[in-house]
Amino acid sequence: MKHPHTARKRFGQHFLSDHGIIDSIVRAIDPQPGQHMVEIGPGLAAITQPLVERLGKLTVVELDRDLARHLREHPQLQVVEADVLSVDFTQLASSIHSQSDLASAHPEARKIRVVGNLPYNISTPILFHLLDHVAVIEDQHFMLQKEVIDRMVAQPATAAYGRLSVMLQWRYAMENILFVPPESFDPPPRVDSALVRMVPHTHPAPLDVRRLQALVQVAFSQRRKLLRHTLGRWLEERGQAGNFDLQRRAEEVPVSEYIALAQRP
């Protein structure tokens, strides 16, 4: 599936070219025949080809018109030519399963697996976009900037712990599973990369996700200040300060306490 293509900076394109790393990624994903998988940003198909060989068929989301045209030549690929941030993954999952033998299966059997080498310039917006569709997702494996993954899996009282840590740890169990150096790409990025595994929690804490997003954003808006100067005022305006300890900085509060705060009536 190879063809000449110059990486386009505006799309944040860095194509995997290290066969050893590619093999490690595919083994980590562990695709099985018949599974329903969606790949974001297949690019030059470095991961796409070994995935589809194991799956039998694969849906890919590609924004680059030239790459999408080339990918359509592969009979086992369903190509969605679109900006991933505009894709309704809930509807896409329904469409994929309606074409399969599992069309009438139990909802738990109708989920999709999502993989991709995400453009670094919009990786966080993509993660939050997928959070809106997590109910139809079995798991996610993404190549990301290592610094972003460090923030995703960070523990409280560390410099990397922040809004991204809280929002994603509420909904996923996550693991940094593979380091990927710049020379594994063409052209090589100026940062280290890594592969993260994200598995949605089976029974996540029930809450208003918009409220959690709002309070976490306020809490981390001024990291060096005590929460009484930021989140405290936000809670007082809503009559919900209660007995929450505001004599801490945002990074000292564990995910479970942010969740409990978001669950308050």
* Pattern of helices and strands: EHEHEHEHEHEHHEEEHHH
Rg value: 20 Å
- The best one-word shape is elongated
Number of domains: 2
Relative strand content: 15-25%
Name given to the CATH homologous superfamily of the largest domain: Vaccinia Virus protein VP39
Number of helices: 10
Low-confidence sequence ranges: 1-12
Helix content: 25-40%
Broad CATH class of the largest domain: Alpha Beta
Subunit organisation of the chains: single chain
The computed structural class is alpha/beta
Query: Mind summarizing the main beta sheet?
Result: 7 strands, mixed
Terminal-residue CA separation? 55 Å
Read across the widest sheet, the strand sequence of neighbours is 4-3-2-5-6-9-7
Question: Could you explain how this protein is built, in words?
Answer:
33% of the residues lie in helices and 19% in strands. With 265 residues, the chain is of the alpha/beta class. The chain has 2 domains: 9-200, Rossmann fold; 209-262, Helicase, Ruva Protein, domain 3, CATH 1.10.8. The strands form 2 sheets. It has a 7-stranded mixed β-sheet. It starts with 14 loop residues before the first strand and ends with a helix.
